[in-house]
């Protein structure tokens, strides 16, 4: 690659090479680098434009211009001069270097003709408590009171019956675009800043409680019948709940559209989507900018107020679930899941378009399982615009989530260091990495978690840079340890690690939503299903042989730990898996209902869309049955004995 293009790319955090899954250097094509630079607003299409870009960088350095955001760890300093306005309005002078006793928070630094954001972040979070909990796909719950899928009323009931658990880890509850059809995946949300109204319990609203018997009867009659195929029909659930909430809307009372401008912006998107469709990029031109006169005129409508009300109901019901966790004495409480990105056609794609890279799709480079690479179709932050805007959008997202969370699991936490960008018109393998400032991304995450008293768990599975796991540990953020993956990779046989050799700084689980359940693993369900759907890369016999070997290795490990014998039945082997995790030094352990109840089907099968019912599989047992199930009580007893809160 041309040396000047390489220099320009490096200056903007765009990788010109990376290590592939073989740990070998893989050079990125010049076309990919030029395409990604273009997404950052940098013209690299000719030698002259590259030279001009490099000259601009040199000029900024010679002028000693500060970036739009300065991040400093509490107790540290930087060589800066200027006036600091603290969050509380106090002014502090910096003469040559920042004072070391600056408080945590969001401040302003004025130096010369520059006024920049100064963020003081924690060096680390408090050590998380040692406890255990449940890993819950909330939509999969169903009870006598819920409408076709699990809801926040079910969550509250589950927390109350959680049998000594210290936490409940949920799937993402991020907002959808309120149009039909409703997509099933919780990892491609319309907005990560707001919540999904499908999870509302209609009967738990004040409006329903105030309704007369006739109106309640009308509302109750809208409850959807179970789907004929036994799967969750999100569209039917939303149509039923939205119709019910429309009936109750006249009883909502006055809604203040000025109290939370960010919420009103989101509600404006929802109202416009009802008229113009879910993809804002296809709206009439006058509505494609959230600050346009046409949009500003629409912000006061009744439909905007309706969608503000829905989010207020969600805050109330999430608050009730959190209160139930506090009443149960949970030291962590309810842990939310942060998806790695958003649907670019949705609410955040519209509202935050100035800090997103227009047209980019995030994904992953080729690996052993996805040799063509992955295109997740998700939007990505522009790192340069985050810096120049003081990370305002990132800060707002975290603050809104932590208002309703005792903890946060960050999906693909390595994305806080770098993300794989795929330029428009190119295949997933033709992208490259774009780097972010981890001091800012991790520091701001730590700041907002610290202020909320919340724990942070990073999903650091797969091939990640060592710095990711090392930094999480330094900052008292937890990594992830999944039984299926926690092996001795220096051993040619790649046998399972002993319980004692697990990392301390981790959340340990048997599986994840993307992997086989415990019961499925024991019978090779993942091989059967993938073979049936044509998802295997090689002969089914080879896959079955690998699965049989894998299962045998696990049984050897459990036998060596003294947890099973050759004649131990399958259900007791599953109990032994949980007891194995309870013996590890990991701070947090979570048990999935899919494993405890012996479910064969995993929630999501990567590499499929309509071939497999991803995210639409309800648990076979009702919530009432789960709370009375002796298998659930047994796992709770096993985990409580070893991982009671300390």
UniProtKB/TrEMBL annotation:
Transmembrane segments: none
Superkingdom of the organism of origin: Bacteria
Enzyme class, first EC level, given as a word: transferase
EC number: 2.4.1.25
GO MF terms, alphabetically ordered: 4-alpha-glucanotransferase activity
Keywords: Carbohydrate metabolism, Glycosyltransferase, Transferase
Catalytic activity annotation: Transfers a segment of a (1->4)-alpha-D-glucan to a new position in an acceptor, which may be glucose or a (1->4)-alpha-D-glucan
GO BP terms: carbohydrate metabolic process
Family (UniProt): Belongs to the disproportionating enzyme family.
Protein name per its UniProtKB record: 4-alpha-glucanotransferase
Source organism per UniProt: Actinoplanes auranticolor
Gene name of the encoded protein: malQ
């Amino acid at each position: 690659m041309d040396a000047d293009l390489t220099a320009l790319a490096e200056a903007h955090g765009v990788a010109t090479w990376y290590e592939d899954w073989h740990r070998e250097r893989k050079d990125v094509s010049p076309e990919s680098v030029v395409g990604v630079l273009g997404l950052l607003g940098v013209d690299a299409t000719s030698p002259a434009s590259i030279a001009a870009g490099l000259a601009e960088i040199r000029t900024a350095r010679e002028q000693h211009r500060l970036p739009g955001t300065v991040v400093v760890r509490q107790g540290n300093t930087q060589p800066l001069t200027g006036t600091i306005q603290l969050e509380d309005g106090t002014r502090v002078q910096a003469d040559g270097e920042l004072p070391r006793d600056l408080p945590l928070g969001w401040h302003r630094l004025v130096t010369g003709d520059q006024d920049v954001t100064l963020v003081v972040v924690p060096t680390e979070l408090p050590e998380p408590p040692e406890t255990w909990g449940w890993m819950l796909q909330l939509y999969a719950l169903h009870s006598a009171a819920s409408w076709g899928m699990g809801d926040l009323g079910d969550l509250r009931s589950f927390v109350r019956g959680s049998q000594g658990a210290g936490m409940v880890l949920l799937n993402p509850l991020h907002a959808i675009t309120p149009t039909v059809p409703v997509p099933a995946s919780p990892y491609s949300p319309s907005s990560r800043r707001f919540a999904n109204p499908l999870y509302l319990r209609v009967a738990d609203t004040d409006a329903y409680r105030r309704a007369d018997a006739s109106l309640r009867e009308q509302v109750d009659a809208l409850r959807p019948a179970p789907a004929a195929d036994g799967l969750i029909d999100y569209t039917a659930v939303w149509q039923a709940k939205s119709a019910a909430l429309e009936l109750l809307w006249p009883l909502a009372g006055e809604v203040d559209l000025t109290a939370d401008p960010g919420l009103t912006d989101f509600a404006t998107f929802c109202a416009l989507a009802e008229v113009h469709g879910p993809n804002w990029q296809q709206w009439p031109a006058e509505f494609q900018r959230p600050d346009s006169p046409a949009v500003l005129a629409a912000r006061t409508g009744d439909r905007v107020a309706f969608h503000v009300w829905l989010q207020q109901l969600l805050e109330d019901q999430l608050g009730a679930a959190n209160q139930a966790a506090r009443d149960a004495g949970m030291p962590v409480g309810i842990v939310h899941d942060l998806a790695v990105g958003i649907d670019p056609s949705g609410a955040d794609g519209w509202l935050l378009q100035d800090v997103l890279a227009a047209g980019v799709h995030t994904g992953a480079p080729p690996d052993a399982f996805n040799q063509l690479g992955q295109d997740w179709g998700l939007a990505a932050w522009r790192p340069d615009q985050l810096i120049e805007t003081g990370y305002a959008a990132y800060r707002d997202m975290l603050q809104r989530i932590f208002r309703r969370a005792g903890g946060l699991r960050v999906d693909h936490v390595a994305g806080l260091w770098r993300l794989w960008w795929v330029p428009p018109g190119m295949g997933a393998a033709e992208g490259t990495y774009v780097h972010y400032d981890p001091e800012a991304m991790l520091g701001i995450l730590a700041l907002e978690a610290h202020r909320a008293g919340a724990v942070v768990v990073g999903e650091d599975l797969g091939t990640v840079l060592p710095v990711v796991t090392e930094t999480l540990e330094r900052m008292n953020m937890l990594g992830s340890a999944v039984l299926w993956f926690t092996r001795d990779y220096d051993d040619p046989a790649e046998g399972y690690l002993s319980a004692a050799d697990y990392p301390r700084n981790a959340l340990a689980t048997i599986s994840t939503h993307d992997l086989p359940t415990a019961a499925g693993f024991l019978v090779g369900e993942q091989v059967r299903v993938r073979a049936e759907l044509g998802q295997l890369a090689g002969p089914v016999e080879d896959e079955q042989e690998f699965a049989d070997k894998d299962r045998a290795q696990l049984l050897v490990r459990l036998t060596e730990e003294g947890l099973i014998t050759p004649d131990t039945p399958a259900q007791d082997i599953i109990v032994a898996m949980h007891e194995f995790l309870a013996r590890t030094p990991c701070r947090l352990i979570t048990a999935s209902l899919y494993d405890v109840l012996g479910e064969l089907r995993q929630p999501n099968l990567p590499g499929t869309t309509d071939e497999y019912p991803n995210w639409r599989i309800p648990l076979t047992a009702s919530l009432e049955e789960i709370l009375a199930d002796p298998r659930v009580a047994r796992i709770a007893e096993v985990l409580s004995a070893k991982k009671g809160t300390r």
